[in-house]
Amino acid sequence: MKGRKWVSLGAVGTLVTCLGCSGVLWSVFSSGFLGTDKDTDDFTPQQQRRLLDKHFPVQVPPSATDLRIRYQAFQDWRLDISFTLPPGDFEAYVAELPLHPQEPGSYAGRLVLGDGGFVADASTITVDPEARRVKLHAFTW
Fold first, then answer.
1. Is 139 within 8 Å of 76 (Cβ atoms)?
2. 129 pLDDT exceeds 80?
């Protein structure tokens, strides 16, 4: 009789422990505690424009289409933005981009705002003339 009592208490204790661990894991994963992943659709058009204005050194023309945004964050963050431009706007836009000092064939994204505010630790812009696509990769470490 005493043995069954301890087995029953052990089973109840194991069940409560499993339910408690499941609850903690569910809250950690569902609350964004382990990071944030956002795509283009997670940003309003105004937020998308603010991201473009903040991270690109030259104002992105309103003719930009096929905007793609991927934002990932945990302790540090990573941002990938790309868009396409019509032929005349593409050449004019690329001609205004500053060359990247450490990466030949690339252009420099914005690291610091005009008022001295921080933007990113690293930011690189690459272009695909064939597709007329401009791509920015920025991150912190």
1. yes
2. yes
The side-by-side arrangement of strands in the sheet containing 122-128 is 36-39, 65-73, 77-84, 133-139, 122-128, 107-108
From CA 10, how far away is CA 137, in angstroms rounded?
A: 53
Enumerate residues 6+ apart whose C-beta is below 8 A from 135: 80, 81, 82, 125, 126, 127, 128
Among residues 33, 132, 126, which one has the least CA distance to residue 80? 126
Give the predicted TM-score (pTM) of the model: 0.73
What pLDDT score does 21 carry?
52
Residue entry with tokens 């661990």: 21
Report the 10 Å Cβ neighbour count for 118: 9
CB atoms within 10 A of CB 13: 10
Which two structure tokens, joined as six digits, stand for 56? 């690109």
Residue with tokens 């029953």: 8
DSSP designation for 20:
H
Which residues sit opposite 92 in a β-bridge?
none
* 13-39 pLDDT per residue, tens: 676 675 555 554 444 444 444 568 999
For residue range 46-64, list pLDDT tens digits in order: 999 999 999 999 999 999 9
